[in-house]
Specification:
By secondary structure, the protein is of the alpha/beta class. The protein is 40% helix and 16% strand. A 5-stranded mixed β-sheet has the order 3-2-1-4-5, sandwiched between helices.
Length: 216
């Protein structure tokens, strides 16, 4: 530390160059230029805990921001994406491409209603609507199977990368039944325009007009 201060003093006084001052004092330039990093919030919390203080990570970050210190941003979560097995742009016949997605609403008391909708992109016919509080992957498959027994088996099924649609159980079931998957790009709902259009009309002509008291 003293050598670094001496080099800094010599350089500030313009007595010689940084390189020459480091050589005279036997100090590597990389050592001279190294700046001590501020301890991370996790390290600060550990030090405070050793002294008997109980603070949360957010409290430490709030104080660091107040003091003008850098706070490491939370790492962005990389969303998992499904694997598309075929790429037809438009459906050309019945049961060529189905599409499915979720739409949400609330009851009069504020409870959430989650609705799974399925649509044939060629006929624009809604082949299924399932309403639950929460919908698991096995319920998604049960709804799809029921729709298939009535309307036939689709060649492809289009969806976003929601966890219910990219679950391993869903992928395996579709593969066993030779149904190819089409996943739209993240944040690109216009690539699933048929179901988005249906949801818009479903909300305007039904959900916004009806007073839903409970799940039934």
């Amino acid at each position: 530390m003293q050598k670094k201060r001496a080099v800094a003093h010599v350089v500030d006084q313009r007595l010689c160059s940084e390189r020459r001052a480091c050589r005279y004092l036997g100090l590597h330039r990389s050592t001279y230029r190294y700046s001590t990093q501020q301890p991370l919030p996790k390290q600060i919390r550990a030090l405070l805990a050793q002294e008997g203080w109980q603070v949360s990570r957010k409290q430490v970050q709030r104080i660091r921001r107040k003091e003008g210190l850098k706070v490491r941003p939370k790492p962005k979560r990389i969303p998992r994406q499904g694997h598309s097995t075929g790429l037809p742009t438009h459906a050309t016949h019945r049961n060529h491409v189905w599409t499915w997605d979720f739409i949400f609403d609330r009851t009069d008391k504020g409870s959430t209603l989650k609705m799974l909708t399925m649509l044939d992109e060629y006929t624009r016919q809604c082949v299924a609507i399932r309403v639950e509080r929460q919908i698991r992957s096995d319920q998604v498959l049960a709804t799809l199977w029921q729709a298939m027994t009535t309307y036939g088996i689709p060649e492809h099924i289009r969806s976003d990368n929601g966890t219910e649609f990219i679950a391993q159980k869903i992928q395996q079931w579709l593969q066993e039944n030779q149904i190819k998957t089409l996943y739209i790009d993240p944040g690109s709902p216009w690539q699933n325009g048929y179901i988005e259009s249906f949801h818009s009309r479903f909300r305007d002509e039904c959900l916004n007009r009806e007073w839903l008291l409970n799940l039934q």
